Structures are given as structure tokens and as C-alpha cells.
Amino acid sequence: MGCGISRSRxxxxxxxxxxxxxxxxxxxxxxxxxxLAAYGRQGWWPADTSFEVMVGAVLTQNTAWTxxxxxxGRLAERIDLSAExxxxxxxxxxxxxxxxxxxxxxKAQRLRDFCSFYVASGGLDALSRxxxxxxxxxxxxxxxxxxxxxDDMLLYAFDRPVFVVDAYTRRLFSRLGxxxxxxxxxxxxxxxxxVLGPDVAMLKEYHALLxxxxxxxxxxxxxxxxxxxxxxxxxxxxxxFPLTQGD
Length: 247
Ligand code: SF4
Known about the structure:
Shape: globular
CATH topology of the largest domain: Endonuclease III, domain 1
Low-confidence stretches: 1-17
Number of helices: 13
Radius of gyration: 19 Å
Number of domains: 2
Largest sheet: none
Bound molecules: iron/sulfur cluster
Structural class: mainly alpha
């Protein structure tokens, strides 16, 4: 059945910090508690080591996680998952291993760039000693690492209190009437962090729950509003499926 959702805007928007974004703190917290009640803890990030988190963050750009898992599996069959071993492969061999992740030539080069940075910086222990804003700047200086990837790494590999903004965040909070959808990345990140504070476990869980909800219910096309646990306070969902006496 078609759904008359019209509030979502797909534009990623700029990355600047010039725009101040205001979110309703109660709404941000209630979405979290609601999704946690609906789906339970997600236990992210699905990786064995911090380095594997970072590799996954590079590979997951523009592809589904299942494809990343296949690529990581192929890579692990050929080498151990360390920056030095990845750099020991020539770029063609690396690209071949990463084939399931899509854009494999580009991702092979990006992964090599990241591994070069990682080794030159002294590895995990050295990077872990760098203060969050400076570490973020250093990650962003690596070619191919944008704000979302850097924040994935900061949150899930370095346990830093950052909120990851992705297309799912924009879609959901646009439909909830909290965002217009074209705000800058930094403005959205700052607004969520101001509400949620430095609770790393919660920030990890929140992002994972948003991804789960976007895949299971708040999909780009044909969202499942009629059974969504957020519908009673979602303008877009109520437009599409008004509450009835039975709700
Ligand atoms: S009711 Fe739920 S699925 Fe529908 S737009 Fe709102 S949040 Fe998304």
C-alpha cells in the first residue's frame, strides 16, 4: 500500500558548523527509549577489534554491511587483519579481496590511505592518547574519510562520546518534524550531543537503533508506519496512517 510520506528530504546537506540545529530534548530521549524498548540492545559495532571497526567503517561507505562482512571475510582468508598486512598487498590484490564491498578499486586505495595514516601515527595505542577533537581532525585529514566515517571510528573504535549522523538519522528526524533534512552535519551532531551528553554506551546504542529502525520500519520507500512504535508522535506517520480508536 502506498504511503503519503512527504516530509523526508533526501539531501545530505552541507557539512559546515555554521547552522545551529535545535532539537526537542524530550523527543530525542523518547525516541531512544522507544526504540530500545522495541528492538532491544543491538550490541554494535559488529567487529572483534578496534582496527577491524575502522576497516569496516571505511568499507561500509555506500554499501550494505553484509557486503562488508563478505569483503572482510575474503580479506581475512588472505592476510591477518592488520594495517601492515593490508599495506603489504598491492592495490590490485587488495581491490580483488574487497570486491564484494562495491567500489572496490576506490575502497582499496582508501583503505591503503587509512592504513598508511594508522601506521605513521603509531597505531591504536598512540591514536588512543590523542584528545577527541584533534583525533577527529586527523582522521578527517585522511583522504576518503568524511565526518560520518570519522565519527564511526571515534565512537566504536575509540569509545569517544560523539553522535554519528547518517542518512537514517536525517530521514527519521525529518519525518518526526525535528529536522528539515538539509542541515549541516556538524550542526546536527552538536545538537544531539548537547541533548545526550557524554554517555558513550548510549551513543553507541542510539546509532545502532536508528539503523535498525530505518531498515525495519522507517524505510525510504514504503515505511511501515501502521505498525511503527513511533507513529503516535510522528507527523509523517500520522499523515499517512491516522490513529483510530483501536490504536
Ligand atoms: S511512523 Fe515510524 S515508520 Fe512512519 S515515518 Fe514515522 S517514524 Fe517512520
